Amino acid sequence: MHEGISYYIPAAVLGAAVVARLPGLLRGWRSATVRLVNALLLLPCAGFVLCAPPTIAAVNRFSGISNLSALLVQCLMTAYSCACLLLLAYWREETGDHARTRRRVRAWKSGCCVVITALVILFALGDVPVERPRDFDTYYATTPFISAMLVLYLVAYVFAGVAMTIVCGNWMRSICRRTAHGTRTAVDLSFQVVLLVLVIGAVVDIAFGSFKLAAVVARWAGRDWEALNQSLSPFVSVSQILIGIGLLVPAYGPGLIDRVWHPVVGISALRPLWQLVHQAGPTPRNSVFLSPPWYAGPEQVLLYRMTTIHDWMLELCAYCTDDVRALVYHRSKEAGATDQEAAAAGLAVMFQAAADSRARKETPETEQNLRAVAAVRSAEAEDRDLLVSISRVLAEHKGVGARRTVGMVPAGPAETIR
């Protein structure tokens, strides 16, 4: 069983992904793209399982057909290569070009069906009585019909790699042409990275298939290149991982970016403001928001921090001096800052001064407090990312005197931003 661990672990990971995506597959079954994305998880999962020596022995024993696993793996890999090309065709589809895409998809599907049918027929006509879980290619390279099956599979495998390289290369060139005209978008940039990964994976596939084919041809000449054949085996896993990453990132990437990356960036951006309010005193009296559990995701942690910071800001408003905020705001405007930048600078200095006042137990006039609250409410209406804006001001000017930060802030409660 230990011989199959290296195969079963990636198969288990892919299988878990298939199960996780099963509800989405059932809901979006009519979408060809949804079906293909799930196929790109399921096919290599089945391939890894069937390549494991224990599985090979079990399949041969239960089916009563020696080396049946070799045929199944070849058919799965052919279908996987076809699925990759189909997904690229759907991605590349341009508006108003549905007919051309349908013709291309039908061509790839027809070619895949022909190759798989031919592989099955040639395997049925051949004779493979000796079970060869590791060196099937070179051992049966001179066997009638089986040799043709091996050549057909490897040629189709290399052809699919070349086709993927051409498709991705043409797509990358079209993106580069748009870039030259200054029209590249963030989506174009991400697709350039994805296409580059796909090209690398396809080149590895081409090299793998070519060397395997060379080992088969060498066997025809009476030479034994099995050592080369075995040394190349790990590369097929590398190529499938690269291609899988390239094809699945666009499908899963947006969700990961929205639910993981952006919240993590937000948590990092809020750290200076979080440290300021967190160190200002005890927990706000009116806060009823529970801390997230240890297993909470980035979205929940970000929500907790934003809510807690907002509660702290309201508590600190009792120690705020609005004259400080107004002076910083006007000085920032005179220095060329935008309204939002000036508002964030004023509030950052005001809240730092409020934290200092609270530490010294100094309370400003009530009129100053009320004006400060009104200023905070107004800024929140104008800047939906106000907390981040304030936090960035604190980060940029950490340890710099408020007088240097805004130009002319009077000495007193707002003397420094620490």
Keywords:
mainly alpha; Rhopdopsin 7-helix transmembrane proteins; 17 helices; 76% helix; disordered C terminus
Q: What is the correct CATH architecture of the largest domain?
A: Up-down Bundle
Task: Determine the CATH topology of the largest domain.
Answer: Rhopdopsin 7-helix transmembrane proteins
The CATH class name of the largest domain reads Mainly Alpha
SSE ordering: HHHHHHHHHHHHHHHHH
Strand content: under 5%
Radius of gyration: 32 Å
- Please, how many helices? 17
Tertiary shape: elongated
What is the domain tally? 2
The amount of helix comes to over 70%
Straight-line N-to-C gap: 61 Å
Question: Would you mind describing this structure in some detail?
Answer:
- The longest helix has 37 residues, at 233-269.
- By secondary structure, the chain is mainly α.
- Helices cover 76% and strands 0% of the residues.
- 35% of the residues are buried.
- It has 2 domains: 2-266, Rhopdopsin 7-helix transmembrane proteins; 298-406, no CATH class.
- The chain has 17 helices and no strands.
- It is elongated and about 100 Å long.
- The chain has helices spanning 5-27, 32-51, 53-63, 68-92, 98-125, 136-139, 146-180, 186-220, 226-231, 233-269, 271-278, 298-316, 322-334, 339-359, 366-382, 386-396, 402-406.
